[in-house]
């Protein structure tokens, strides 16, 4: 497995949030943004002429709150919503989630430790505080999706999500790579979870690098240990891009 080399001024950075920029916490609201991360992302955004984006399962407004005052280009809810480099937000037409929410809430009301996270386009059922309920959560959400083509089931880290079919992190990164300032740049995508695999495939298909954060099988061709190693790589990248003699693109 290759260690990720540092980017040149022709790079575009795509960064997952949970498990990549911030460590995993017991609940979604309990994550801690490392000191120095926001100014570091702002520095990289400037150094790469704006070609830095967050690509996450979280809603865009939640990511903005954690990274305030920075408002980066951001794809949220696994690509269902995407804010481009000009600040324009593109959202998929809403899908009726009422049955999904009802099923997730009914299960959470019957079992201590389950948490329902209601997003705009998706619903996540978290079982981190009750890991013995994994299979029950999977079965319940799979049954709710049934064979309805408008939904897709995702199984992430201690979470089962139902999201709209047809968008994922790969489609979001592809869309960015067709627009300025990302176009014709070498994409680097860091992610830690199974839901990041579509993003690794696209980054590598466009001549860039997929970088898996932490353990687990992956199609990514590079790996780092965890969020602390991602932070260190970002710091080294910012220093290298600021070094005298780094050719601007
Ligand atoms: O695509 P990501 O940025 O990695 O987001 C994936 C999901 O992350 C959040 O859940 C995960 O992180 C929580 C906080 O560490 C953790 O408690 C949970 O077990 C993880 O699954 C977020 O809540 C979801 O909406 C995201 O889809």
Could you please describe the fold and organization of this structure?
One of its GO terms (biological process) is trehalose biosynthetic process. The relative contact order is 0.19. This protein has helices at residues 37-47, 60-67, 98-110, 134-145, 169-177, 197-205, 227-242, and strands spanning 11-15, 52-55, 74-76, 81-83, 89-91, 115-118, 123-126, 151-156, 159-164, 186-191, 209-213, 222-224. The chain has two domains: 11-90 and 167-242, Rossmann fold; 98-164, Trehalose-6-phosphate phosphatase related protein, domain 2 (Alpha-Beta Plaits), CATH 3.30.70.1020. With 249 residues, it is of the alpha/beta class. The structure holds ligand L263DTV3.
Which CATH top level class of the largest domain fits?
Alpha Beta
What general outline do the C-alpha atoms trace? globular
Spatial separation of the terminal alpha carbons: 29 Å
Radius of gyration: 18 Å
CATH-assigned fold name of the largest domain: Rossmann fold
* Protein structure class: alpha/beta
CATH homologous superfamily designation of the largest domain: HAD superfamily/HAD-like
Tally of extended strands?
12
Number of domains: 2
In the sheet with the most strands, the strands line up as 5-4-3-2-1-10-11-12
Task: State which percent range the strand residues make up.
Answer: 15-25%
Order of helices and strands: EHEHEEEHEEHEEHEHEEH
Profile the largest sheet: 8 strands, mixed
Number of helices: 7
